[in-house]
Design brief:
Elements lengths: L26 E2 L3 E5 L3 E7 L8 E6 L2 E6 L19 E7 L10 E5 L2 E7 L15
Parallel strand pairs: 1-6
Antiparallel strand pairs: 2-3, 3-8, 4-5, 5-6, 7-8
């Protein structure tokens, strides 16, 4: 298997000017996979440590915004070694007119947010039958 077949990416902190982003704390851009079918788009976002009640999804003016907040761990432990940086998640997407915005659904399981974005009927491909005569 070559390196081009399997590539990993490091977790990156958002590099956004403070004038555009006024949330407190560290935010990361979640890794996202987007799948396309004839009837819908499916977006999967990796947000480890985020429970369903700590996800905010906002849709306005064709901009879909995802915010995931990681619950702070409590305890009197001092870290000896930390290889995994913890923080919240933030990502935005522009939604085109092919998505039926009123029918978008979302779920979270095992740290993965799944958004299903159904396509509007006029965007769904269909076969047109031809009749003789």
């Amino acid at each position: 298997m070559s390196n081009q077949e399997l590539q990993t990416t490091e977790k990156k902190e958002l590099d956004t000017p403070t004038a555009e982003f006024t949330r407190e704390g560290v935010y990361f851009s979640p890794a996202v996979d987007i799948y396309d079918s004839e009837t819908e788009l499916v977006l999967l976002a990796d947000m480890p440590g985020v429970s369903p009640d700590r996800v905010e999804i906002d849709l306005r003016e064709n901009m879909l915004t995802i915010v995931g907040k990681v619950a702070e761990e409590t305890g009197d432990f001092q870290p000896l070694l930390t290889e995994y940086r913890s923080g919240n998640y933030f990502r935005t997407f522009r939604i085109s007119e092919i998505v039926d915005q009123s029918k978008i659904t979302a779920s979270v399981a095992d740290g993965v947010l799944k958004l299903v974005l159904p396509k509007v009927q006029k965007a769904v491909p269909r076969k047109i039958t031809i009749s003789a005569g």
